[in-house]
Write a structure and sequence with these properties.
The protein has about 260 residues and is α/β, with parallel strands linked by helices. The protein has one domain: Spore Coat Polysaccharide Biosynthesis Protein SpsA, Chain A. About 40% of the residues lie in helices and about 20% in strands. It contains 11 helices and 9 strands. The protein has a 9-stranded mixed beta sheet with strand order 1-4-3-2-5-8-7-9-6. Strand 3, helix 3 and strand 4 form a beta-alpha-beta unit. The chain is globular, with a radius of gyration of 17 Å.
Length: about 260
């Protein structure tokens, strides 16, 4: 499997698969207005169910691209029958999402994490937000899990985003292609790439804040503990706000960029 290093916005990485002939009941790729880009890394346990949940969106005219960052558990193979294209890119969400954007055909780009599910009316909500004049937007977020503290976390995330005009990747950011390319796409950062992109997009205009939530997994909260994860994220974001190097922050977050 070939890994592409920092693919420029004007080039498309070679696909692992390319379903150019759309499956029965789905619009031809050339006619699709929305491209859903899903970066993945070792998501074999959940990727099939996640992508199957996007089948209705594909039938409504969306193109689905999965961008793998070097999985060792067979994720690309599992994704192939459920996506229009499965691509390989250098590890890191920024590189993977930029690669997906470069290879996509839609006029609107939706960046969706592999552990986040869209509401049933997502396509209509995005269309309405853009028709109202927004250049980009995001959804409110709901974190799966019964813990009361998670309700506080999600409400704080949604309120903070609405107040500041900054969105995070958990909120399923969508943007007009022309605007995404105009601001240069995701910065080449191993962490905080979502916040950095939102800062760029905010110069174009404030985001549409869709109140119907996406649902995101609580797995990282469960893995490290809810309170501990809250404190870690606040420390990281505060450090980034005051100019800390995202590469050092990535190491603190537990992710070290691959050295090829």
């Amino acid at each position: 499997m070939r890994l592409w290093k920092d693919p420029p916005m004007t080039r498309s990485p070679a696909p692992i698969t390319d379903a150019s002939a759309a499956p029965p009941g789905m619009a031809p790729l050339a006619a699709r207005w929305l491209s859903v880009i899903v970066p993945v890394l070792d998501e074999a346990a959940t990727i099939a169910a996640h992508l199957a949940g996007l089948a209705a969106l594909r039938r409504q005219g969306a193109e689905l691209l999965v961008v793998d960052g070097g999985s060792s558990d067979g994720t690309p193979r599992l994704a192939q029958p459920l996506a229009d294209r499965v691509l390989a890119a250098a590890r890191g969400r920024a590189a993977q999402m930029n690669a997906g954007a470069a290879a996509s055909r839609g006029e609107v780009l939706l960046f969706l994490h592999a552990d986040t599910g869209l509401p049933p009316a997502a396509a209509e909500l995005i269309r309405a937000a853009l028709a109202a004049g927004a250049a980009w937007g995001r959804f409110d977020v709901r974190i799966d899990g019964p813990q009361p503290l998670l309700r506080v976390v999600e409400r704080t995330m949604n309120w903070r985003s609405r107040l500041t005009g900054i969105a995070t990747g958990d909120q399923a950011v969508f943007v007009r292609r022309e605007v995404f390319e105009r601001v240069g796409g995701f910065p080449d950062l191993p962490l905080m790439e979502d916040i950095a992109l939102a800062k760029r997009l905010k110069r174009v205009g404030r985001p549409a804040c869709v109140r119907q939530p996406v649902r995101t997994s609580a797995r990282r909260w469960h893995r490290h503990g809810v309170l501990r994860t809250i404190l870690l994220m606040w420390r990281l974001r505060t450090s980034y706000f005051f100019g800390a190097d995202p590469r050092r922050l990535a190491i603190r977050y537990g992710y070290s960029p691959r050295q090829d």
